[in-house]
Amino acid sequence: MKVDLEALQALDAVIRHGGYAQAAVQLNKVSSALSYQIRKLEDQLRLPLLDRSGYRVRLTPEGEAVLAEGRRLLQQAGRIETLAEQLGSGWEARLLVVVDGILPLADTLQALKRLADEGAPTRVQLKIEFLGGVQYRFDKERADLMLAKDYAPDPACRALALDPVECVLCVAPEHALAWLGRPATLGDLQSHVELTVQDSSERGGERNLFGGERVFHLSGFVAKRQALLMGMGFGWLPRYLADPHLADGSLCELGYEEGGSRYRFTPWLVERLDRPPGRAGRRLADLLSGRPEA
User: CATH number of the domain at 165-264, please?
Assistant: First the structure.
């Protein structure tokens, strides 16, 4: 390349400091070295960059254009140097995180925002999967972290239990099940459409929780909530999605005679033992587990 970053740095310093002597002090070089670098740059570019006819050197019109672009190049080079220093000090270049879509996405996004606000240089990829698809994707793509509802213990991984998440059995107030006047039996539920979320693993493990013949498998919990609000059927919703609608009456909690209308599960934060997380992974794990100052 014809462009020498050190020569651009010398040109920038000479203009900012008003002369060679002050620039040489700032760059810890001798004035003659700066003069040589700038003249060499002029020769390489075949352009006059400095007007040396007056008492103080100043930029030619060509020099103004070159220095304006050169300063952007110097800034970018500085960012590359900073990035290299960060990656060399334990920050990962890439972090792949797989999260079960039943969990509050806002919590994960807030943790990622905090990580970005703190200046982490790591590029994070977030993938949303469901049920068995979470661990399947974690294993298949060798992801770094996983937030899973269903976790099959793996000796190659370390898992941390997180705060429980509560789900509630819901139905729209105009749905026939809402008018029973008593807790629904299994037979009652099996006679209506059950709304559930499709397992996103390639093994296709669809689940029919109540055993009825009519089941709608939806792509996620936002779609499931919309279907419930429309009165299409009944199904489980995590409380963080259901509570606003239970409060305003747009959904009803559906009593269930054999198992109750609520259940809890414990999510798991999982990382690999054979590839321990670096600084970004450890920080993100702390944020996701509720230890923001760890």
Answer: 3.40.190.290
* Average pLDDT of the residues in 27-44: 88
| DSSP β-bridge partners for residue 250 | none
pLDDT of residue 206: 47
- What torsion do the CA atoms of 147, 149, 150, 154 make, to the nearest 10 degrees? 30
CATH architecture of 5-88: Orthogonal Bundle (1.10)
DSSP lists the bridge partners of residue 252 as 171
Q: What is the pLDDT of residue 294?
A: 45
- Mean pLDDT check: name the lowest of 81-90, 212-221, 284-293: 81-90
Q: Measured between alpha carbons, how far is 183 from 91 in angstroms, rounded to an integer?
A: 54
Dihedral (Cα; 167, 171, 172, 173), 10-degree rounding: -110
User: Domain 94-164+267-288: which topology?
Assistant: D-Maltodextrin-Binding Protein; domain 2 (3.40.190)
One fold for both 94-164+267-288 and 165-264?
Answer: yes
Residue 269 phi/psi, 5-degree rounding, is: -100, 120
Domain coordinates of the chain in residue numbers? 5-88, 94-164+267-288, 165-264
The three-class DSSP label of residue 119 is coil
Distance CA 196, CA 180 (A): 22
**Nearest-5° angle of CA 118, CA 122, CA 123?**
120
Relative to beta strand 94-100, strand 58-59 is: unpaired
Q: Measuring CA to CA, how many Å separate 10 from each of 67, 80, 168, 171, 183? A: 10, 19, 67, 71, 81
pLDDT (tens digit per residue) in 123-145: 899 999 998 899 999 999 999 99
